[in-house]
């Protein structure tokens, strides 16, 4: 996580330094800032103002930590709070490290987990108040966020949590193998309310269903030189739609290194937020499986198929074989995934 921390006194900054160092040792990118009046003596970055610091870090960081009173944090973040699915985690810890309060995005943003981590470092207590946590129940939105699954419908997520809180069973189905036991209150199969881990867009077997989409599809794309971004986008969306697969499931795109400077393909991947991996012909030839051959493609690139081979190089299984349209070829592979609730 990219974490931004603010402290407002010398004592708070001392705790902040210890926390920043400990979180950095755990692999987090954590910065600490203090008011300008304290910065020179403490040798720490100065905030231009708390309002400006909060506005900048709220948009940039995955989590904000305020070392000080909850009221300071609440007033600072209030103008920026928008959506529980996109707002960063926000937590406040007192200067003695006794209490850590998750204030915003407890589940999806990870503030509850962040508060527990900080409390473990300070020897304090995380004051977690979300209903599922208080009652020791499974929190589907928090679990999905930890797994990196896309949450399609916040209303359905609330319905699953409400059912569990009311003592009702929540159904569960998955496209992928499940390891270990299901959480308390969750039952395999269809139900009135439930959730599904799936890359498909087909209707779910619930009256109220939450679709959780793992990023488990790897696309392979080939295209003629100079193909426009819009043409590539149309070909990809059509291929996924024809096979009932969600665009939210795409983990990245592969192609041949001859296309590493292809402007339309680069722009397409950038706008979708998908990583573009470019492979040499020799790397593509090492892909295992049976592929749709093309003498023309082999003559141009040195390999008989680009899109299918690029799709499977990370170990996936083809679920869309070569689809050609308007000078664009698209294939997709499903990456291996096992679901666990532990």
TrEMBL record:
**Could you identify this protein by its name?**
Cobalamin biosynthesis protein
CobE/GbiG C-terminal domain mapped to chain residues:
219-333
Q: Which domain of life is it from?
A: Bacteria
Native organism: Pseudoflavonifractor intestinihominis
Question: Which Pfam families does the UniProt entry name for this protein?
Answer: CbiG_C, CbiG_mid, CbiG_N
Q: Tell me where in this chain the Cobalamin synthesis G N-terminal domain is found.
A: 53-133
Domain annotation Cobalamin biosynthesis central region: ranges: 138-187
């Amino acid at each position: 996580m990219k974490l931004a921390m603010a402290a407002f006194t010398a004592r708070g900054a001392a705790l902040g330094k210890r926390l920043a160092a400990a979180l950095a040792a755990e692999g987090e990118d954590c910065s600490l800032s203090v008011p300008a009046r304290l910065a020179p003596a403490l040798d720490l970055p100065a905030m231009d103002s708390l309002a400006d610091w909060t506005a900048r870090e709220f948009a940039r960081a995955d989590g904000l930590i305020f070392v000080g009173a909850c009221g300071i944090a609440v007033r600072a973040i209030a103008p920026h709070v928008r959506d529980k699915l996109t707002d960063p985690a926000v937590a406040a810890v007192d200067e003695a490290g006794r209490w850590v309060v998750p204030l915003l995005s407890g589940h999806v943003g990870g503030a509850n987990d962040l508060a527990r981590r900080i409390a473990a470092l300070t020897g304090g207590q995380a004051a977690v108040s979300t209903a599922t946590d208080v009652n020791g129940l499974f929190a589907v939105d928090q679990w999905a966020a930890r797994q990196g699954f896309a949450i399609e419908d916040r209303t359905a997520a609330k319905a699953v949590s409400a059912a569990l809180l009311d003592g009702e069973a929540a159904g569960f189905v998955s496209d992928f193998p499940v390891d270990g036991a299901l959480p308390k209150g969750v039952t395999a199969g269809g139900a009135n309310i439930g959730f599904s881990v799936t890359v498909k867009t087909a209707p779910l077997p619930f009256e109220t269903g939450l679709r959780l989409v793992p990023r488990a599809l790897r696309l392979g794309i080939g295209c003629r030189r100079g193909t426009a971004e819009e043409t590539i986008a149309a070909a990809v969306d059509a291929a996924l739609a024809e096979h009932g697969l969600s665009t939210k499931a795409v983990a990245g795109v592969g192609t041949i290194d001859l296309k590493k400077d292809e402007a339309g393909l680069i722009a397409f991947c950038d706008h979708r937020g998908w990583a573009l991996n470019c492979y040499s012909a020799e790397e593509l030839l090492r892909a295992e499986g049976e592929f749709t051959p093309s003498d023309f493609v082999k003559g141009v690139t040195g390999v008989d198929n680009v899109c299918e081979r690029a799709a499977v190089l990370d170990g996936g299984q083809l679920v869309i074989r070569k689809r050609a349209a308007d000078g664009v070829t698209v294939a997709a592979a499903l990456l291996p995934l096992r679901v666990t609730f532990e």
